[in-house]
């Protein structure tokens, strides 16, 4: 069993930055690939970013490429979503999720942290 807790969300002005954290407990991140997702108001949940269990492979969705990056600190069992040049359409609830290596579906989800980009 893996428990995931996101933090770092809040209100930020357009053009600003935030760093979201996802702390995992129960198992070490060495066994799990991690993803970031978001759900904007009135929209479906969408993929934002990915970091592999080793931390060696990361990628983000085209919609945030060049502005967001993903990183991990396996010693701290924490993954991060670094968000820069935030726009109003980045507003939503951000979730982290974990899946066992080799799986295609995510097995565990956090409760989400809200991000509001507004002036």
Account of the protein in words:
0% of the residues lie in helices and 52% in strands. The protein has 119 residues and is mostly beta strands. The strands form 2 sheets. Strands 2, 4, 5, 6, 9, 10 and 11 form a 7-stranded mixed beta sheet that branches. The protein has a 4-stranded antiparallel beta sheet with strand order 1-3-8-7, with no helix packed on it. Strand 4 and strand 5 form a beta hairpin. It is globular and about 40 Å long. The N and C termini lie far apart (40 Å). 33% of the residues are buried.
Tell me the layout of helices and strands.
Layout: E1 3-7, E2 10-12, E3 18-25, E4 32-39, E5 45-51, E6 58-60, E7 68-73, E8 78-83, E9 92-100, E10 108-109, E11 113-117
In short:
This protein is 0% helix and 52% strand. The protein is mainly β.
Elements, N to C (H/E): EEEEEEEEEEE
Number of helices: 0
Contiguous runs where pLDDT drops below 50 for at least 5 residues = none
Choose one word for the global shape.
Answer: globular
Beta-strand content estimate: over 45%
Average pLDDT taken over every residue: 94
Helix content: under 10%
Class from secondary-structure proportions: mainly beta
First-residue to last-residue Cα separation = 40 Å
Radius of gyration: 13 Å
Major sheet description: 7 strands, mixed
Tally of strands: 11
Could you list some keywords that capture this structure?
mainly beta, four-stranded antiparallel β-sheet, seven-stranded mixed β-sheet, globular, 119 residues
């Amino acid at each position: 069993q893996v428990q995931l807790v996101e933090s770092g969300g809040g209100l930020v002005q357009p053009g600003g930055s935030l760093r979201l954290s996802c702390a995992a407990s129960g198992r070490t991140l060495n066994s799990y690939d991690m993803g970031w997702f978001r759900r904007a108001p009135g929209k479906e949940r969408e993929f934002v970013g990915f970091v592999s269990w080793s931390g060696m492979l990361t990628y983000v969705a085209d919609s945030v490429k060049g502005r967001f990056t993903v990183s991990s600190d396996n010693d701290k069992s924490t993954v991060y979503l670094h968000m820069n040049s935030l726009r109003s359409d980045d507003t939503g609830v951000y979730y982290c999720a974990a899946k066992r290596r080799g799986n295609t579906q995510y097995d565990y989800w956090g409760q989400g942290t809200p991000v509001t980009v507004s002036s």
